[in-house]
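re: ur msg from earlier - yeah i can do the S-adenosylmethionine complex, just paste it... oh wait u already did. ok heres what im feeding in:
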Amino acid sequence: MIPWTQLGSAQIPNNGGELKFSQRGDEFSIRLSGIRGELMNSRLFNSEKVLAELGCAHLHFTDNAQVLVGGLGMGYTLAAALKAVSANSQVTVAELIPEVVVWNQGPLGNCAKNPLEDPRTKVHIGDVRALLKIRKPTFDAILLDVDNGPEGLTQKDNSSIYSPQGLEYIYKTLRPKGMVAIWSAGPDHQFTLRLKKAGFKAEDRVVRARPGKGSRHTIFLGRKP
Ligand SMILES: C[S@@+](CC[C@H](N)C(=O)[O-])C[C@H]1O[C@@H](n2cnc3c(N)ncnc32)[C@H](O)[C@@H]1O
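and the outut:
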């Protein structure tokens, strides 16, 4: 068996620990230090891709669509969002950890076919929460995969995104008929209710980690009327 080789590491802000980036043959892994396990593996990306397909399904015929993706990870959600929108649209990807962007500019880029090189991609290095707080109708779709789900994981601070106030900000930052799509490792009935309370037409979908097999993930969808 080919051994893993560590290619890089990065500190997560606010004492969030360390990210470790490794390669084994053509497989890449980003792990969280300590016992918190694997954040992403390059072979498991179906639900990350479907997140963008569901979140951008209403944008196929939209001119100048504006999409926000948070965060970059291995680029699969970004690549699927670019595929879903028109040639004159823009997809802004917010990534908290600068090294993750550098890894995607290097060996990791091939996994999702180098979405950072697409001229429609705009990179925001920093916290996606700054863009969610714009509170003026700005984006037609907001695709969030920054955590394990509404419970948080990478950043404790991220839990504010899923709070009633966080959802109010997202609602205001979406354009009319805009969609928020949120990746989660599992269902959370309370969160679906919170989306509804915030004014969204909400539903959740179960999506497998690999097409037709693997772990069952949840994608929460909230449509602004
Ligand atoms: C699970 S990965 C995303 C995977 C991505 N959907 C893909 O297709 O590869 C989560 C990413 O979100 C980033 N992240 C975590 N919190 C963030 C925040 N508040 N703002 C921006 N990026 C964040 C992490 O550094 C990590 O790169």
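cool cool. The chain has one domain: 44-223. ping me if u need the other ligands too
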